[in-house]
Specification:
Blueprint: H1 2-12, E1 18-24, H2 27-35, H3 37-61, E2 72-78, E3 84-93, E4 95-97, E5 103-105, E6 117-120, E7 124-126
Antiparallel strand pairs: 1-3, 2-3, 4-5, 6-7
């Protein structure tokens, strides 16, 4: 794991501040997603699109034209007790990249936890890392 982290810092990620977001899923959904890799990928994709849209909205409201963002995401299939717990850790910049590649921090208030932030209204809810 430290080798992967060192590779990301040294060779992949541009110099910028980053924040970790965690997608945690309800217990009933975890079992379904543990068996269906494609569906898990779709759920994580929905989560990331929601966060990216939020970042771009904030950047545009601060006068940044054509903002771009990105992420590095790792899906973890177990919890600290080695129990089945599908969840995703996403590393996203605390800001956006302009078309020319320049990084701009967005003025962020502290991100507060919300009780629920619906990603897929039918079954999946984000319960950690939700923006205001």
């Amino acid at each position: 794991m430290t080798t992967t982290a060192a590779h990301l810092v040294d060779r992949v990620l541009p110099t910028a501040p980053y924040r970790r977001w965690v997608l945690s899923l309800p217990r009933q959904v975890r079992f379904l997603l543990a068996r269906d890799h494609g569906l898990l990928g779709e759920v994580v994709g929905i989560f990331l699109r929601k966060v990216f849209a939020w970042q771009r909205r904030r950047a545009r409201s601060q006068g940044i034209a054509k903002p771009h963002t990105g992420d590095v995401t790792f899906v973890q299939r177990f919890g600290s007790l080695l129990n089945l717990k599908c969840h995703a850790h996403a590393l996203l910049p605390v800001g956006v990249f302009a078309t020319g590649g320049d990084f701009t921090c967005t003025k962020e208030r502290r991100v507060r936890m919300r009780r629920e932030w619906a990603v897929d209204a039918q079954s999946v809810k984000v319960i950690r890392g939700a923006p205001d």
